[in-house]
Design a protein that fits this description.
Elements: H1 2-24, H2 31-39, H3 52-62, H4 76-88
Helix pairs in contact: 2-3
């Protein structure tokens, strides 16, 4: 009986520790990255220098990408919606991402 109570208490303490750690180390993900990724061609070729379209979209959101034309398979049909989306959805601090075609 003592072993059962000990295991139950340990399980409760470890569960509370995991719940606290999950909240403490939670990573906020920018939802705009998924939208920009979906607006890209989706070929995941890596010709832009990033590991696929998701990496390129993350580079756009981080301000590392200066020109959308770095995406080699992309065309104006991809670039224009991205630029419109970025002009409608500012950063959390209210600033806008500057990127050229």
């Amino acid at each position: 009986m003592t072993a059962l109570i000990t295991l139950a208490v340990m399980g409760l303490l470890l569960g509370l520790g995991l719940a606290y750690s999950a909240e403490l180390f939670k990573v906020e993900i920018d939802e705009r990255i998924d939208t920009v990724t979906n607006l890209l061609p989706g070929i995941n070729c890596g010709a832009c220098g990033y590991p696929g379209c998701a990496g390129f979209a993350e580079g756009i959101m981080d301000g590392e990408v200066e020109k959308l034309s770095d995406c080699k398979p992309g065309k104006d049909e991809h670039y224009n919606p991205i630029m419109e989306y970025l002009s409608d959805h500012p950063n959390p601090d209210g600033s806008f991402i500057k990127v050229a075609k």
